[in-house]
Each structure stands twice: as C-alpha cells, then as structure tokens.
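User: tokens in, sequence out, please.
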C-alpha cells in the first residue's frame, strides 16, 4: 500500500520510535513543531477514526497516556496539546489516522486548540442544537 505510515510500520522507512506494542506505534515527527512532537498511529491502516473499532481506539488512547508520561519525564514540558487533523478541511495530510502530541512550554509561541479555527460570527447554538433532534 502506498501509505507513508504503513511503510514506517513495515520498516521500509526509518523512524525515531518512542513507543511500540502489538497494535500501536509512536515516533518523533520528522518536521517537528515542538521539541518531542510525536505522532501516534494504529499499525493497521485506516484513514480516519471512523475506520477503527472501539478496542483500537482505546488502545491508541492508552498508548497516548504512556507516551505523554515518557515525554513528561524526559523533556519536562509545562503542558501538552494533543489531537489530530481529520480530513481535508481538518488539515489531514497523511491519510492514515494519527494523533499528534505536542509538548508545550509557556511562551513557546503556540496557541490553544481554539486558535485552530475561529468562526464565531452569527452561529446560533440553539438553532444548531435543534438539528440533533
Ligand atoms: P497531518 O497533517 O496531521 O496529516 O500530519 C502528518 C505528519 O506526519 C506531519 O506532521 C509530518 O511532519 C509527519 N510526517 C510525514 N512523514 C513523516 C516521516 N517519514 N516520519 C515522521 N513524521 C512524518
Ligand atoms: Zn497506512
């Protein structure tokens, strides 16, 4: 399969592995946005979270906590931003589900999750809520 992360799993492309178990792999991002910027993936290919069952999703999150603890011990960040880009509009470049872990420091110049998108003009929350029945 022509997927860069599957190639990393298959060891066709080298990586800086921080964590590995039967189903999950985590490695340092090659174009880091922060010291210790880490990418966590299920080894099994799927494009987005919608392609995985609850067991795999739980496994991934269990691994995320372990990796964060390791990053905390080694790098001693003052915080983290953790999340993923989902789909084109969400900024996903690699179509194999992956979670970014950004260790954060006060004054590192980054923003919070809220700085990713800000379209708050005229959104009527009550009206939106009605659409959920
Ligand atoms: P996204 O935009 O969420 O799809 O992010 C994809 C991430 O994968 C980017 O942060 C890239 O820097 C990272 N990336 C791409 N190729 C590699 C690679 N060979 N090793 C490590 N990270 C990679
Ligand atoms: Zn893949």
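Assistant: Sequence out:
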């Amino acid at each position: 399969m022509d997927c860069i992360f599957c190639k990393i799993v298959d060891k066709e492309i080298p990586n800086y592995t921080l964590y590995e178990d039967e189903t999950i792999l985590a490695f340092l991002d090659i174009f880091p946005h922060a010291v210790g910027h880490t990418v966590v993936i299920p080894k099994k290919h799927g494009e987005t979270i919608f392609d995985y069952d609850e067991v795999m999703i739980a496994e991934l999150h269990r691994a995320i906590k372990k990796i964060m603890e390791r990053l905390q011990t080694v790098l001693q960040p003052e915080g983290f931003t953790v999340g993923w880009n989902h789909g084109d509009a969400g900024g996903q470049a690699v179509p194999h589900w992956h979670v970014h872990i950004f260790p954060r420091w006060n004054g590192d110049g980054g923003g919070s999750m809220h700085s990713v998108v800000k379209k708050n003009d005229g959104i009527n929350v009550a009206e939106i809520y009605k659409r959920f029945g």
